[in-house]
Amino acid sequence: MKATTAIIEAENIKRIYKRGAEEIAAIDGLSLTVNRGDFTAFVGPSGSGKTTLLNLLGCLDNPSAGKLVVNGRTVHENGRGLSESQLTRIRRELFGYIFQKFYLIPTLTVLENVLVPFTFFRKEGAGQDVRQLLKKLGLEGRMNHLPAELSGGEMQRVAIARALVNRPEVLLADEPTGNLDSERSLEIGQVLKKLNEEEGLTVLLVTHNIELARTARVIIGLKDGKISQAR
Ligand SMILES: Nc1ncnc2c1ncn2[C@@H]1O[C@H](COP(=O)(O)OP(=O)(O)OP(=O)(O)O)[C@@H](O)[C@H]1O
Ligand SMILES: [Mg+2]
Known about the structure:
Rossmann fold; 8 helices; 31% helix; binds magnesium ion; ABC transporter, ATP-binding protein
């Protein structure tokens, strides 16, 4: 059984962007703990730091200051961090990512798209249940279709399957329904909820869509790179 402990701990993290002489604190001293099995949505105005935060928590970017511990390992502390190859390993082993744009390869079928991560890395035990995964995502009848033959909601579900094929512990989703209408958006919300409840997948979701955010168990509001409210 997996321990029900923290999987990501951020302590007073900052991310400062330099634009010429100007410094922008996109994340400005933020502390947060993500526990295994959480389903958290981040909301807040444009420019409040949602994408920056998700990228930091998912080890796609490095904090300028503060401490970040992922899966018990100190990834970053006071401006010093793990090497790029160590970070790559953590990304591959722990995280799955989905984005607003689906980034499917147009010449590959659904099944082939989902298998693309194996070209780079195959986590032990991953792979046997790809068809099962596609079924779970309602794509069993679409396996041999090309992306152009799918609806937007189906395309995003393919992207979710691809993100899950290596069995990550945490799924990071940045505006995953930004290209979908409201009904399809809530459908994706239900898929994420099901994966969270049935598989224990930890889900971190960024969205402008408050209805979608409500499918999460916790909503955290961001403003000016800080947590403005949580419920
Ligand atoms: N690469 C960068 N260089 C300089 N400034 C950046 C960079 N990326 C983001 N910023 C700035 O950091 C702040 C936070 O940006 P971020 O993209 O995290 O916001 P967001 O909440 O995701 O916004 P949106 O809802 O529009 O996606 C903004 O002021 C933005 O202009
Ligand atoms: Mg963003």
